[in-house]
Amino acid sequence: MTRTTKARTLLNCMSCALLPLALAITGVAQAQDNGEVEVLNWWTSGSEAKALGALKDDLAEKGIGWKNMPVAGGAGTNAMAVLRSRITSGNPPTAAQVLGYDARDWAERDALATLDDVATSEQWNDVFPAAIQDFAKHDGHWIAAPFEIHSTNWVWANKSMMDELGIEQPTSWDEFIASLKKAKEAGYTGLAYGGQPWQDTTVFENVVLATGGADFYRQALIDLDPQALDSDTMVETFDNLRELLKYKDDNSPGRDWNLATAMVINGKALYQIMGDWAKGEFLNANLEPGKDFMCFRTPGTQDAVTFNSDLMIMFETDDGQQQAMQKTMAQIIGSPDFQIAFSQIKGSVPARTGLSADKLDACAQRGYEQVKAAADNDTLMGSLAHGYAAPASVKNAVFDIISSFVNSDMPSDVAAEQLAAAVQSATS
Prior knowledge:
It is a single chain. By secondary structure, the protein is an alpha/beta fold. It has 20 helices and 14 strands. The chain has a 5-stranded mixed beta sheet, sandwiched between helices. Strands 9-10-8-11 form a 4-stranded mixed beta sheet, sandwiched between helices. The longest helix has 26 residues, at 197-222.
C-alpha cells in the first residue's frame, strides 16, 4: 500500500475531529513524492559538508530528496575523473559541482541543461560579476549556478603565536619571509603546508602574483605567454618559492589541506597560504577572526584577487520531474538568502553583488569589498590551480612541473624553462 493510500484510508476511518492530522499526513506523503537529486561533489571536510547541508535542507523544505555523491580530493581532480566515468557510461548524476573550465568543457559537449528561465526570472545577468559569467554562461546561455566566490591569495595566521613572537601583520614579501624565519628560530613550523599538486600550485600562483604583480600573473598564467613563462621574473618567482619552502615541515608530502589548516588552528604552525575555504575550518572550530586567528592577503598581492567559484551544472535529461528539480536547485543556489547563508559556513563571499555583508564575519566582509574592487579594477583573476586561469590540460601540466620543483632540488632557471615547455606542449 502506498503512503497516499494509507493517508486516504486514515481519512475514511477516523472522525472528522482528526481531519487536520490526516491532512497533514497526506501533505508529507505528497512532499516526499517530489523526487530526489543526486549531486556529485568533493565537499568532504567538516565545514564543506556543513555548507552543502544548507542546500540539502533548502531542497528538503520543497519536498526534494538528496542523494549525496562525495568524491574526496581537493580541487576536484578525483571528482572529475568519476564524473567522466559516469557520463561515459550513460548514467550522469542530476547535478555536479565543477570549476570554471570544466563547466565550459561539458557545455561544449552539449551535455548540460540550460538555466536561462531561472537566470531571467532571478536577473542573474545583473547580479553576478562578468568574471563569473564568463564561465557560468556558454554561447549566451546560462549553464551553471554560481555558489560563491573563493579567493586563493589569503594567509591564515595563528594570532596567539604572532603575539607571542611579537610579529605584526606583514605587508611585504620580505616582511613575510622575516616573520617565517622568526617562527622557525623559535622552534615552530612557519608554514603549514599540504604537499599535493593542487596545493603546491596554489602556493606557486601566490608567489607569481607577489613577485611579478597582476600584469605578469595575467601574462604568464592566463594568457600563457611563452616569454613570460620563461622569463627572469619567473626565475625570480621560483627563487622566492624555494625560499618559502624552507619554512614548511618535513611531514608535508601528501597532507590534506584541512589537516594543514588544523596545524594553524592548534598552534603547530604560524601561517597557511590557502583559499578562504580554510576559514570555514576556523569558524567550524568556533574561532573568531581578529581574536583567535588573522586573515590577510598574501603580502605583495594586496591589489588583486585570484579566485575560483564553485558552479553547479545540471545534466540534460528528458525526465520532466528531474528538470523541475534542477531548476529549483538552481533558483535556491542563486538566491540572496542562500548566498549569504552558504558563505557564512563555507568561508567564501557571495558570488552575487549588491548584498549586505552584515551577517558575514570580519574576514568575509573585507574579502567581499576586495572582490568587488578587484572586479572594478580588472584585477579579479582566475586561479590556475583551481581551474579558472587555463584549461585542465594546462593546469595538469603545470601541476607536474611545480610538484617536481617542490619535491626536488631543481634549479629555478630549469623550472622556468620546463614550465614554458610543458604549457606549450599542453596547448599545441
